[in-house]
Specification:
single chain; Growth Hormone, Chain: A; mainly alpha; 399 residues
């Protein structure tokens, strides 16, 4: 009973701290285009800087997961948030293209630490009975905080652009201090008889790799990859489309982001919590993938403002439902460490976001509707893989 109370307290602290974390990580997004323009950087920096950052997240996420499993979750969270904040302050002092690209990669490396660490920490302070529900609530908080952070960043954009990065860096450093002072260790590896293997030890051992990367895990990572290729392609094209085709002001994008965050909060605290409490099978995942595919098709099929925006809202809401479901699948088994599994999920997600952003950038040059078409294809592939995944699980658990 005492352990349960302690876990509940830790969970509440995690949720409060994560609000400020996800707010701050989105301050810079609305002002980045202005910053690049002021520095007279080439147009490709919009895509290449994002690719550098997400590539670093992809490469380092499994490592951060293993570090948290072996040396404690709190340390990885303190250091990753602190160093990310310092990196953003340096980013605000940048003057050249290579500075921008290098610091985006460094920021990605540290953001991988808190992206993996917070999810793994939520798993640490949960048990089988409430894990899916808490992940859904965590995803809801993340969704709405990121959206509001985007809006705050747009408002801060009225200041000199560099100040936004300085403010972001200081807030992230304050988050690091808050973690150090208020959060207890959610994972205590020193008290375990055996420590989880590091990612590189698993990869170089054929037997261990075969045991970890089962057909179900590989297909799951494939589903995650294509879901986020579709999402990243769609959301990046959507942002361009609002300005180029509909001539909306940047504040409209900020308000829209905040609105989608609120819908995501409602969806996660209603649909996902209900699923976590009442639906134990995996058919729901395939059903919501199908709804997401429908949304992607209707976005491509409609060019009028009202139906285009309405179906975009539907699509993004379906994605916010899928996201915690994917997270729950990733950490369903913690045999190899919650951090390790969170790292694999984050790596697959980041690779999808990187490919989706690049696809959207190049495809938009061919035609402003092409990225939406490619999003349909990616979601369709994810749906096929999801059905395959469900088939593999049949016989092992009820559906």
């Amino acid at each position: 009973m005492e352990r349960r109370i302690l876990m509940d307290r830790q969970y509440k602290k995690l949720m409060i701290i994560s609000v400020f974390l996800w707010l701050a990580t989105n301050f810079h997004h609305p002002v980045n285009p202005t910053y690049f323009t002021e520095l007279n950087l080439p147009n490709h920096v919009f895509g290449t800087s994002m690719a550098f950052m997400v590539s670093a997240v992809f490469l380092t996420s499994p490592i951060w997961g293993s570090l948290g499993d072996n040396y404690g979750r709190k340390k990885t969270l303190v250091y990753s948030t602190l160093l990310y904040g310092m990196t953003q302050i340096a980013y605000g002092m940048s003057t050249q293209l290579w500075h921008i690209l290098l610091l985006r990669a460094i920021a990605g490396m540290f953001s991988g630490g808190f992206m993996v660490g917070f999810l793994a920490a939520v798993v640490d302070v949960s048990d089988e009975s409430n894990r899916a529900e808490r992940i859904a609530a965590f995803s809801a908080v993340m969704s709405v905080s990121m959206s509001i952070g985007f809006l705050i960043g747009g408002i801060l954009g009225y200041l000199p652009v560099r100040y936004v990065f300085y403010i972001q860096g200081l807030v992230m450093m304050a988050v690091s201090l808050a973690i150090h002072l208020t959060l207890g260790e959610t994972n205590s590896p020193t008290g375990k008889s055996t420590k989880p293997d590091f990612i590189w030890n698993i990869l170089k051992d054929k037997d261990k790799s075969k045991a970890v990367f089962t057909p179900w895990i590989l297909i799951f990572l494939g589903v995650t990859l294509f879901v986020f290729i579709a999402y990243s392609s769609n959301t990046n094209a959507f942002n361009y489309y609002l300005k180029e085709q509909l001539d909306f002001k940047p504040i409209v994008n900020g308000i829209w982001r905040a609105g989608t965050g609120i819908f995501g909060l409602i969806a996660n605290l209603t649909i996902n919590v209900w699923l976590a409490r009442n639906y134990k099978g995996k058919n729901a995942f395939v059903i919501f993938l199908s709804f997401t595919l429908l949304g992607a098709i209707m976005i491509f099929a409609n060019t009028s403002i009202i139906p285009f925006m309405a179906w975009s809202l539907f699509y993004f809401t379906m994605h916010t439902v899928l996201f915690p479901m994917l997270q729950s699948f990733a950490v369903k088994s913690t045999e190899y460490g919650a951090g390790f599994m969170s790292g694999l999920f984050s790596a697959s997600r980041s690779l999808g976001e990187m490919l989706g952003a690049l696809i959207a950038g190049f495809a938009y040059g061919i035609g402003n509707r092409v990225p939406f078409l490619l999003s349909i294809i990616a979601i369709a592939i994810a749906l096929v893989l999801g059905i395959m995944q469900l088939t593999i699980r049949t016989g092992k658990e009820s559906n």
